[in-house]
Amino acid sequence: MDEDQFKTPLFDAMVALAESRKVSFHTPGHKSGKGISTRFRKFVGPRIFSIDLTTLDEVDSLQAPKGVIKEAQTLAASAYGADRSFFLINGTTGGNHAQVLTACSPNDTVLVARNAHKSVMAGLIFSGAKPIFYLPLVDEELKMTLNVTTEATLAAIDANPQAKVLLLTSPNYYGICADLKEIVPYAHKKGLTVLVDEAHGPHLRFHPDLPPSAMDVDVDLAVQSTHKIIGGMTQASMLHAKGPRVDMTALAAVLKLVQSTSPSYILMASLDLARMQMATEGKALLDKAIRLAQEAREKINKTPGLFCFDSAVCKSRFRGMGGLDVTKLTITVRDLGLSGYEVSRLLNTRFGIQVEMADPFNVLVIVSIGDRKDDLNRLVDALREIAKESRGNRPFSFGKIGLPPFGRPAGLSPREAFFSELQYIPLAEAKGRISAEIVTVYPPGIPLLVPGEQVTEEIIEYVTEMSQLGATIDGLDAQNSTIAVVK
Ligand SMILES: Cc1ncc(COP(=O)(O)O)c(C=O)c1O
User: Fold this and answer.
1) What's the CA-to-centroid distance between 117 and ligand 1, angstroms?
2) Where does residue 350 rank: exposed (0-12), middle (13-18), buried (19+ CB within 10 A)?
3) CATH topology of domain 408-486
4) Chain-wide mean pLDDT for the chain?
5) Residues 203-231: what's their mean pLDDT?
6) How far, in Å, from the CA of 391 to the mean position of ligand 1?
7) CA-CA distance, 127 to 446, in Å (whole number)?
8) Which of 121, 170, 228 for mutating ligand 1's site (highest number of atoms within 8 Å of CB)?
């Protein structure tokens, strides 16, 4: 192991500065917590405020790092196998904006796997790039959007020789990865720069039983939500860059544009420490998380009415994927006669267990380095109880609701549509009109409509029914009944 990986230069400098007890006549206004509300200080304790710092010589500047932040980012690059790594304080959202803005000029053609997060679509609006979307594989039985197949990706590359950039999301929310090992060399051979939204994969590199990370297979730019899966605090992410296709100067300049000039040092320290933790003990920590997840999976699969797919199912049934992050447990509950939403609600209200998300047929559980055996046992026991009580129910049916539909391309780029003259009309009358908004049903947060896409009958029906079921819809008015379209 590289002994340097035990170092935490940013955190150390922050602690040293806090302990020096210098008098502060600078931001933040709470002055090391002396001005913070008493309730807040009583609950969290006083020390956290002493490291809520601002850009000062002792702790460097995220906008122009040349001291401890530079050192911390260099250690992160080394741990992640990148040429350069950048700390992000607005999550992978900010990283997706930055990677699209760096790799794409206005009117460049970008091949985008359609299972992209809203932040990718926002990056397309900002940049003025022209996406050509292609579809992920779906599993009709589980009513789940999987990832893109290698076959579909290579076909999209071949059919669009003008494309400059390929943008993939891997792993997806359920831990299902695209086969980057196969896709990346082909894309590079065809002259494409490859960007990966790896929000759900900051741990992959640290365990051989997990699918390869983007940097391991020479992806050019990848963004990871350190906060989602490992030890980063919420909003703390990293962007990694590698190879000759990335203009590092341009990337650093873009990050200066999209990131706050007052970055949270607490978030950045959590990145420094999370990297140290994974680089020095990630394998052991993940050994445990993987074991806990696998044991729970086996028990769930022995429970009548429940199903939790594993790597073998991923290989045999979800053809063309690049493997499964086994720390994600997608628990299919439909044979209990309950929806994923209902099981999620029961787990929460009766058993005090909160899952990551639910969809019509499944609940998704993230098992991480923070979980203990007791936590997983409690989950399994609760699921067994729910299953026992549901015995004899008919499988849950969602009426005619199917898989989420997507809008149709209509010749306008996301940016052109977003900045067009708009009209707000009832969703029920929007068939055939061009959306000016990103419309997303949560979960899993994949947009149904991107600005520039035509609204279809299926989308209107789907949004209406999901809205009635209580799903969260983003991009419409508060009643989910009005949509912004191009006039
Ligand atoms: C695939 C994917 N990309 C990007 C994001 C945004 O990441 P963040 O919350 O770190 O901004 C999410 C959030 O759920 C996501 O699931």
Assistant:
1) 7
2) exposed
3) Ornithine Decarboxylase; Chain A, domain 4 (3.90.100)
4) 95
5) 98
6) 37
7) 20
8) 228
Topology at the third CATH level for domain 3-278: Aspartate Aminotransferase; domain 2 (3.40.640)
CATH number assigned to the domain with residue range 283-390, chosen from the 4 options 2.60.120.10, 3.40.640.10, 3.40.50.1000, 3.90.1150.10: 3.90.1150.10
Q: What is the mean pLDDT of residues 385-406?
A: 83
Which residue out of 87, 88, 90, 93 has the highest number of ligand 1 atoms within 8 Å of its CB and is therefore the one to mutate? 93
Burial of 52 (0-12, 13-18, 19+ CB in 10 A): middle
In the sheet that holds 109-113, the strands lie side by side as 84-88, 237-241, 221-224, 193-197, 165-169, 109-113, 130-134
d(CA 273, CA 127): 33
Residues with CB under 6 A from ligand 1: 91-93, 117, 119, 169, 173, 197, 199, 225, 237, 445
List pLDDT tens digits, range 19-37.
998 999 999 999 999 999 9
pTM over 0.90: yes
Q: Are 115 and 145 in contact (CB under 8 A)?
A: yes
On the 0-12 / 13-18 / 19+ scale of CB atoms within 10 A, 392 is exposed
Per-residue confidence (pLDDT) for residue 398, from 0 to 100: 67
Q: Ligand 1, closest atom to CA 444? A: 16
Q: Say if residue 444's pLDDT is above 80.
A: no
- In the chain, the amino acid numbered 218 is D
**pLDDT, tens digit, for every residue of 76-120?**
999 999 999 999 999 999 999 999 999 999 999 999 999 999 999
156-172 per-position pLDDT tens digit: 999 999 999 999 999 99
Give me the phi and psi of 362, to 5 degrees please: -135, 155
Identify residue 176 by its one-letter amino acid code: I
Res. 480 pLDDT band, cuts 50 70 90: confident
